[in-house]
């Protein structure tokens, strides 16, 4: 689920240069994972865990990276195909 979230965040940032512009969406994904873990404290039979949050961060990071690389590769193919 968090890989999908990371992919959607990357899709929204497609076209931005590599750099600090990608820090905010990644931080938002990590923060969402932290809030999800915190809310589990109030759900019966659930408890927050650092391991779960680490898995959430990993999922967001992998999804973000994979989709961003795929979009950049596809964009590069289209750009080369349209050149005279």
| Cα end-to-end separation | 42 Å
Calculate Rg over CA atoms: 16 Å
User: Count of helical segments?
Assistant: 3
**Sheet with the most strands?**
none
The H/E string reads HHH
The outline comes out as elongated
Helix content: over 70%
- Total strands: 0
Rounded average pLDDT: 87
What report would you give on this structure?
This protein has 84 residues and is an all-alpha fold. Helix content is 74%, strand content 0%. It contains three helices and no strands. It has helices at 2-13, 23-39, 50-82. α1 (2-13) packs antiparallel against α2 (23-39) and α2 (23-39) runs antiparallel to α3 (50-82). The longest helix has 33 residues, at 50-82. The protein is elongated.
Kindly summarize this structure in a few lines:
With 84 residues, the chain is mainly alpha-helical. It contains 3 helices and no strands.
Features:
84 residues
What is the element layout, followed by pairings?
Blueprint: H1 2-13, H2 23-39, H3 50-82
Helix pairs in contact: 1-2, 1-3, 2-3
